[in-house]
Amino acid sequence: MAVTISGLSKTYPNGVKALKNVSLSIGNIMFGLLGPNGAGKSTLMRTVATLQDPDSGSVHVDDLDVLARKNEVRKILGYLPQEFGVYPKISAVDMLEHLAVMKGVTSPKERKEMVDALLQQTNLWEVRKKALSTFSGGMKQRFGIAQALLANPRLIIVDEPTAGLDPAERNRFLNLLSSIGREVTVILSTHIVADVRELCPRMAIIANGELLLEGAPADTLAALNGKIWSKVVSSDEELKALESQMHVISTHLIAGQHEVRVYSDSSPGDGFQPVDSELEDVYFFNLSQQANN
Amino acid sequence: MRMFWEFFSFEVRLRCKSISTYIYFLVWFTFYFLCVASESFGPVAYANGKVLLNGPYANTVYATGASLFGIIIIAAIFGTSILRDFQRDTYQILFTKPIPKFAYLGGRWAGSLVVTVFAFSGCLLGEYAGTFAPWADHSRIGPNHLSWYIQPFLSITVVQIFFLGSLFFAVAALSRKIFVVYVQGAALFMIYLIGITVFSATRSLERFWSGIFDPIGFVYLDDITRYWTVVERNRLLLSWSPHVGAGVFLYNRLLWLLIGCLSLVALWALFPMSVEALTAVSQGRRAAKAKKQEELELRPVRTLVAARLPRVNRIFSRSTTWAQFLSLSRLRIYIILHEVPFWAITGLMIVFAINNGYFAGRVADVDVWPVTYLMVQAVEGGATLFLFIVAALYAAELIWRERDVHFDGIHDALPMGETIDWISKLVAIAFVEIVLLFVTMLCGILMQTVAGYYHYELLQYFKELYIVTFPQVMVFALLALFVQTMVSNKFIGHGIVIGVVVIVPILFNFGWENTLYLFGNTPPYTYSDMNGYGHFVPALFWSITYWLAVAALLGVISIAWTRRGAEDGWIARQRLAGSRWPSVLPAAVICLVIGLGSGVWYYYNGHVLNEYLNAKQRRQIQANYERNYKKYENLAQPKVIAVDTRIDIDPAHRSFSGWGHYTLRNKTTQPISEVHITDQMQSVSNIKFDRPFHLVSSGPRDIYSIYALEEPLQPGDALQMTFNVGYQSHGFRDGNEKAELAYNGTFFDSGYFPTIGYDRNIELDDPRRRREVHLGPLEELAPRGDQTQSLYNIFFKQSDWITYHAIVSTSGDQIAIAPGYLQRQWQEGGRNFFEYSMGSTNILDFFAYISARYQVRRERYKGTNLEVYYTPGHEYDIDDMLASSKAGLDYYQANYSPYQFAQFRIMEFPRYRTFAQSFPNTVPYSEGIGFIGRVVKKNDIDITYFVTAHELGHQWWAHQLIGGNVQGSNMMSETLAEYSALMVMEKKYGKDNMHRFLRHELDRYLRGRGTEVRHEPPLALVQREPYVWYQKGGQIMYTLADYIGEDKVDAALHNFLMQYRYANATNSQTTPYPDTRLLEANLRAQAPPELQYLITDGFDSIVLYDNKAVSATVTPTADHKYKVTLVTQARKVKADGNGNETPMPLNDYIEIGVFKGKKDEEQPLYLKKVKLTQEQNTFEIVVDEMPTRAGIDPYNKLVDRIADDNMIDVAH
């Protein structure tokens, strides 16, 4: 299953350009979509998930034209929106049963097996008969994951799936996702770089509606090898000075002091140490490059 | 104080920025503008044509109406003002600051008060603006008096805002629950409506306490103003005085002001000004919830290793679509059934239905068996509002639910068609409505059982609830679904839906009456036990089909426009709709074809096969008739002296045809060369005379034709006239079906036959309507003694007395009846034929033809054949009718004159019309007022017995003695029939029961005066005022009999009758018809001199008493008796036709009484008529037993506007 996105553009009625001529090709893999808030990730994912039409461009899943044949896509789709709520008064198991029917699982036996397995996997088994509306944020998110994985979808689109999960649940989810199988395409959007690092053979970074980078995380890391330098600065004045002089890609606080990471082909000066590039550097580097342009 | 000002001005500023404030204002403005600017709108405009639309009474009614409908606005403004801080959690910030309680609560409260008063000022300004509308009826708009605006506004509206606002404010502040705030207004509104229906259904005449405790004001408004005449309505405001209307208004207002103050005090005392106290409960709950969740999360975590998920097969076939549809429907129904509001609505609906069902067996103050049509009407009436609320509410909830709960992202990406999703919403509503209708039916069956009626007609419940009502509710639900789909906001959608509901009756009132464009409208129908749904079925079927198709088309359009996906923009939705059109187009075309087809068929029937006229156009025909032909009113015309008819009724086609033969005689002294004929029903054709003639002219619709006789008809000569008569029903009409023609229960009268000359009964009589068509005031009847008009009788100008013969036929399963003795009965061609003849007995020119499938009860009583023709199943009243007939025959023959016929027949007809009418020896009697009566308690009024005696009485009063075509003559038939019936009833039920009955009659008379549109005449000059000739006439005659003796009154009537009966029967017209002067003279001849004033007061003027027991005390006497000291007040006034009163000197005999026993069950210890000449009187009366009650005119024999203060408890 391959998702081919070509020339996708979208401008909202309020003038916001959410996507600018984005083209992407996604194979049978787990694909990570990185980007800051408001980058256009959700717009892109909603477009692939048949919920929105672009102004121009096309999306194909294999030979299937997503924009023209939405219902065919929906039959193989598992989608977890970034934000969602639940009906009042209805329990997790009833709701999953219902969604399984909607997703074409017509055999009651298979339906039950699938729903039970998902409830177990998402650790909702104990509360399956409780009303969804009483769930906490994390439980609700797990329910969302369960419904997205329902009925062996071949195209899974999960928008910020790890938001609101505690570390243990996040691990469980990532394990679950990676065990799903080979023939499945997963598009996962996140602003947590670690998610992508741990899970995705390929990734893309988008910001302000533009595709900044696409590739395997390892390749992108290699490209920055030896070009990231780090220095601990003690005062804000110094930080300001550095910002104006160099290509600063990120700063971190370490015990109250700023660690500045700088991109440079050679040593940028005194006090800078070469460091191993991390995926986060790739991310910030691309963002800052776009900002500078 | 500065802080108070801070909060106050903040509240006001916030509200000034809110659009809702201006919407409230505008709603009031528009409503009251229309109340004045349009005569087809509003409570006053529609009621009485003489009451000023901007007068004091009108303003009082408007203010009271605003008090009721404003509840919701008051609740919205006051409730939310205090809740705002708790909803937005700003209270945490607020209450950590040092704010005085007074400033916070007081500021919010005062700000809300000012804003609410502003919103309600729209009432005043709208009304004021309405008075300047150039198109308004300015004869009903007086000069604007400031005090007429301000006094009701301050004393009713503002007090109401204060009281309800404070109450709602306190409840909101103390509960701090959004649900309570939103529901309290609606709940009070509903509870009040229930209370009012219960109260009015108890038919209580008690008004004092109920008036004081009425929180809105309709009870005291009715209590104080019910007897107000036009003059009073245009001059008086509700008075603050404790002496007017027993001070009910003053005490009421004070009571509710006090309640308002108490609410504020309670709020002050109980409202905590600290965050801790305010949130203690909710914090506790929140903590408990968090703890529980934590427990859930901390359960032993399963292995981190993910197992592979099982493989499933996904199949998308037709059966999957069906399964998806079922699952969606089930889910939607499940959610509705698990929500509190649904059960709250259902609960309220049950309360309403049960309450209405409880009173289903009471029609117009009388107990009847709660037959299914009454019960279904009652429970459905209680439930309908809820059915529509549920439809509108859940249409919105279902359309918006995914978006409201943010489940749309997941839902919209499911592999399903929009169609099944949308239809599942419709199905959910349908399911809920079906359940509610079932509950309604259970309520009906329950209440029938409670009432002891066990003949449940389940099929009728089913037809009414599921075949007639359910589709109409669904039409409305489809509209709501459509609106909610198209609009961008749920509340705008609700507004539009309510707007559609409100606009339909308004358009109807303004003359837009067409079923095909009034959304969801169906023509009116009435179920009858005799005729089922009868001829209403096709019009109902096609109109429902039409609206279902139209609504379904809206449904299809909404499917195409269904929101799906993330984009709600119009352009995006249009694109989606465009892509969906091809798949829904076939359905749209089918709906369109059905809608067009049924609409065209409906139009063809309602507008092409049958002429379509709205109410205004029908009035225009009447107006034109008067305008064009009034000039012929006094043209000399021959009179009908013999009628021979042949009528063939075809019940299955609601048609009849036949011919008639009139013998006309020139009773005047001059030759007559033209015969004028009115054909109001357009049912006459082929008029021929037995001598050469030609048609001179014929008006539009042939309603008035003039024939010239080539050779004039000489005085004394007779002329033969023949004509065809008939009426063919074609298809169905858009409303206004002829009630006279039915599959089972045909009943039409001589109105279908030609009328000789001009018929003044066609004239418009409502002054409002006359002004509308620019006709002057209605011409009054001629004064008594008018020589010309005394040669005509009051009912039928074209004839005096006639002989009558008829052959009438009907279908093979029905019996056909006309006045006369049955001569022959045979069958021919599968039809039943009957020949009736009156032989040589003279009757009034008033006959009818009746046909139905009857069961007959026959009895012979002292030479008279009594017959009751009834529908099987309606046996309840037969014995009562026969008993009343016998008692009446005995009484009337003994006291008045012999009965002129050898038979008396009663026959049932469908309840499309609700009256009984006396034709010669023949009384058609509606199933709506008889046949299902039941007398349970000893206090119950046996109305069947009374009506039967009344109609029998007409065989004397009208059919023997009839007055001339002058003022007052109507009372000689109606009042005397009423008196006769009262006497017959008293013999059976006794004086106590009569007292009760007459109290209701007095109430109706006094209310009738208040609604008089012309001027109230004295009894002896009555013209068109039923409340005078029935209610007042009965009371006056009854009292007269009580004062001078029943035997004396009967003797007077006997003498009068024997002298004037069959007046003007000769050819020479030498004995004019009597008028009320002659009746009075006969009564005076029997009355002693000191009681002559009773006749003068009762007949010749309008006299009202104000009698009152002021105090009564008892002291034991030495010889073990009891001495009662009774202080009374007696006043007497004379009113003119408009209600202006002038005091009269008192010189009257009035009853003084002392009683034992409880209130309403008093038994007299002492009762005597005493001559009173002064207002205040003190009596000392010694009685043998311990008295409990005492008073003046205790039995309300005199016309007294405050009837219930005549008796008082005796103090010890």
State the gist of this model.
The complex is a heterodimer of chains A (293) and B (1212). With 293 residues, chain A is an alpha/beta fold.
Description:
The complex is a heterodimer of chains A (293) and B (1212). With 293 residues, chain A is of the alpha/beta class. Among the domains of chain A are: 3-86 and 149-219, P-loop containing nucleotide triphosphate hydrolases (Rossmann fold); 226-275, no CATH class. Chain A has helices spanning 41-48, 70-74, 92-102, 108-121, 137-149, 167-178, 193-199, 217-224, 236-245, 279-292, and strands spanning 3-11, 17-26, 30-34, 56-61, 64-65, 77-80, 155-159, 185-190, 202-207, 210-215, 228-233, 248-254, 257-263, 273-274. In chain A, the strands form three sheets. Chain A has a six-stranded mixed β-sheet with strand order 6-7-8-3-9-10, with helices on both faces. In chain A, strand 4 (56-61) and strand 5 form a beta hairpin. In chain A, helix 3 crosses helix 4 and helix 4 crosses helix 5. Chain A is globular and about 70 Å long. The model of chain A has no long low-confidence stretch (mean pLDDT 87). In chain B, strand 22 (1122-1135) and strand 23 (1141-1143) form a beta hairpin. With 1212 residues, chain B is an alpha+beta fold. In chain B, 49% of the residues lie in helices and 17% in strands. In chain B, helix 4 (71-87) runs parallel beside helix 7 (146-175), helix 7 packs across helix 8 and helix 29 crosses helix 30. Chain B contains 31 helices and 28 strands. Chain B has five domains: 2-135 and 144-283, no CATH class; 325-609, no CATH class; 613-633 and 766-779, no CATH class; 634-757 and 797-843, tricorn interacting facor f3 domain (Immunoglobulin-like, Sandwich), CATH 2.60.40; 1102-1212, Immunoglobulin-like, CATH 2.60.40. Chain B has a seven-stranded mixed β-sheet, with no helix packed on it. Chain B has a four-stranded antiparallel β-sheet with strand order 7-8-5-11, with no helix packed on it. In chain B, strands 17-18-19-20 form a four-stranded mixed β-sheet, covered by helices on one side. The longest helix of chain B has 42 residues, at 969-1010. At the A-B interface, strand 6, helix 3, helix 4, helix 5 and helix 6 of A face helix 13, helix 14, helix 17 and helix 22 of B.
